[in-house]
Amino acid sequence: MKVTVDFEECLKDSPRFRATLEEVEGDVTELELKLDKLVKLCIAMIDTGKAFCTANKQFMNGIRDLAQYSCKDNLVEASLTKFSDTLQEMINYHNILFDQIQRSIKTQLQTFVKEDIRKFKDAKKQFEKVSEEKENALVKNAQVQRNKQHEVEEATNILTATRKCFRHIALDYVLQINVLQSKRRAEILKSMLSFMYAHLAFFHQGYDLFSELEPNMKELGAQLDQLAVDAAKEKRDMEQKHSTIQQKDYSSDDTKLEYNVDAANGIVMEGYLFKRASNAFKTWNRRWFSIQNNQLVYQKKFKDNPTVVVEDLRLCTVKHCEDIERRFCFEVVSPTKSCMLQADSEKLRQAWIKAVQTSIATAYREKGDESEKQEKKSSASTGSLESGTETKEKLLKGESALQRVQCIPGNAACCDCGLADPRWASINLGITLCIECSGIHRSLGVHFSKVRSLTLDSWEPELLKLMCELGNDVINRIYEAKLEKVGVKKPQSGSQRQEKEAYIRAKYVERKFVEKQAASVLLPEPGTKVLPPSQEEKRHSGPEKSLLAGEQGAASQKVRSSGSGIQPSTDDSREHLASTISANSLYEAEGDKQESPVFCDSKQPSPGLRLYQAAFEKNLPHMAEALAHGAEVNWVNVEENKATPLIQAVRGGSLVTCEFLLQNGANVNIRDMKGRGPLHHATVLGHTGQVCLFLKRGANQHATDEDGKDPLSIAVEAANADIVTLLRLARMNEEMRESEGLYGQPGDEIYQDIFRDFSQMASNNPEKLNRFQQSDSQKS
């Protein structure tokens, strides 16, 4: 409502003027209340809007988190990211809107109320004060008596001054009222217009923003229609699969168990197995096992780092375990430890064993292919001339082992299936094998066959010479002697693995094709003294005892003549062996005769005695044949101070013979009646190479004989510097490992290098180790 106060009426100070003032004052008071309320509502709206923006921002952050979570789904991630960006823009527009509202409503109207209305109130106070003074002057002027001229003049002057002041203040008050009435319209409308323009800009920005987003929204809507169709199809497929699986019989977990050596994720097989702990309580714990990356690993929880059971499957074997109370157990054995595992059923156990065996064969194949590539690359990039040191290193690493072993007769093809270019070997049998047959040999256990790669593994010189002393032809004449007679067909390279496995097990484990002991099986070399077969029943009688004593007496005489022991002799070459052994007579069968563990008949020596004799004679084919006939590698000759074949091999002076017995399970610490083991005898005889070999194989150098002497004291008395050096180095290395808690570790590198050099000399240049004996002979 617009109220105008006339200036003329102000001068008259009429009742109409007073009524108008009263109306105007009431209107201004109500206006002030309305404006205060509007400002408060605006402040509340702004605060609520900011709270909305905060909640909206949190919601937008939730959308972004969901987008990041859906990073594997490009459609979801891209759409949610786009939406969150749009919402962020809308939040920014909201904040701009609230800032403009605050300036247009809150700031402008508050300024109008605080400044213009305050001026009106101040003018009103002055007007009311001067009006009261005017009334008082009028009353006083009216009350003055005529006869009091002085008072009349004073009252008249006060009234005149008061009226003049009233007119001035009244006119200012009316001016303030009229200005306020005029200004309030402009201020209110200006504020509201600014408010509405802020909303107009806000909605225009939102419209433009969503207009840009609209094509993406329409595209997404079309994709959602297709997604709905696909979801319906997937639902039908899953319902059908659910129904199919529900109809199958899953009464046991091993209904369908498969392994895949070419799995994309590298996991050949996985599943739960019980594992026996290595602690004193031998507790069993269920763990998730898997075969992956040529390793056997397990874990308790999925997020746990897998615990490696076997670092390299090529170095392990797997076998059934029937000697414990729990069922379905099998054992994975590596060179450093063994792990006892239990499956939930027999099918699962067989599947795991098969998976491990297949993984071993695959690992061999992969490493073999890699080695071949490296060999071709190195051969193309290096010249033909090499220094002596390089040749020695290559020999140790096995790079020349393949060529040296394959040149032996029969070794160019696999001993069991005939596949050409075999790259694996059984070191205790002395044969070469293909990759598949080597895997089968590993499954037999190390007590039957010890498999090693001709290209990947390091080869010690004595082991390499052992391989060159036997070969596929020699071993097959022993282990396949009755093959044609029993009517069994030897598998070929293309035969099934099951056929090969059955044949190899029959050949080496059951020994079905070994010819029974016959008179022509074991013929002595020319000039070699061997007990007549008829004297075996009288091992304890005089003739045989005197014969053996005569042989050893002759050896003792040679020891005394040299001052420290017999002259170590090198092993015979393959050509000499071929010239002294008749293959036809050596492996010619005479029929199947039943034999006892000790005597095959009254005319033949027991396999143990044959092994004992052949060990002294350095005849590896005869030793292999004796083992094939069931000879105990640790057989004890009670008539010869309880000596073993290994002690006889020491007396014979052959390093390779000792290595053959050790590879076939000979105990390096069995002692004779005088308390002397192989290490004692090798020290007494001055066989440095054998001492080195026995120390490497764990011989106990602290053992004392019946005279209380250990090998070191014997070597010191004989002044054999080489053997003293080896024994003292071994003792120092042992003490060092025990003091540092490294028992069972490889030991010091210097120690290893020195023993490696002695092994090289003993195998390749034995004359260098004979300087002790030669110097003593010259002195005598």
TrEMBL record:
> Topology with regard to the membrane?
Peripheral membrane protein
Q: Keyword rRNA processing on this protein?
A: no
The taxonomy runs: Eukaryota, Metazoa, Chordata, Craniata, Vertebrata
Per its Swiss-Prot or TrEMBL record, what regulates the activity? GAP activity stimulated by phosphatidylinositol 4,5-bisphosphate (PIP2) and phosphatidic acid.
Matching entries from SUPFAM superfamilies are given as: Ankyrin repeat, ArfGap/RecO-like zinc finger, BAR/IMD domain-like, PH domain-like
- UniProt xrefs under InterPro entries: ACAP1/2/3-like, AH/BAR_dom_sf, Ankyrin_rpt, Ankyrin_rpt-contain_sf, ARFGAP/RecO, ArfGAP_dom, ArfGAP_dom_sf, BAR_dom
- Feature: compositional bias, Polar residues: 554-570
Which portions of the sequence form the region Disordered? 366-391, 524-576
Compositional bias per record (Basic and acidic residues), positions renumbered to this chain: 366-378
List, in alphabetical order, the Gene Ontology terms for molecular function in this entry.
GTPase activator activity; zinc ion binding
Where does the protein end up? Cell membrane; Endosome membrane
Q: Which CDD domains match?
A: ArfGap_ACAP2, BAR_ACAP2, PH_ACAP
Query: What is the name of this protein?
Result: Arf-GAP with coiled-coil, ANK repeat and PH domain-containing protein
**CC terms in the record's Gene Ontology section:** endosome membrane; plasma membrane
What role does it play? GTPase-activating protein for the ADP ribosylation factor family.
Q: Which residues form a coiled coil?
A: 117-147
Tell me which SMART domains the record gives: ANK, ArfGap, PH
ANK repeats sit at 641-673, 674-706
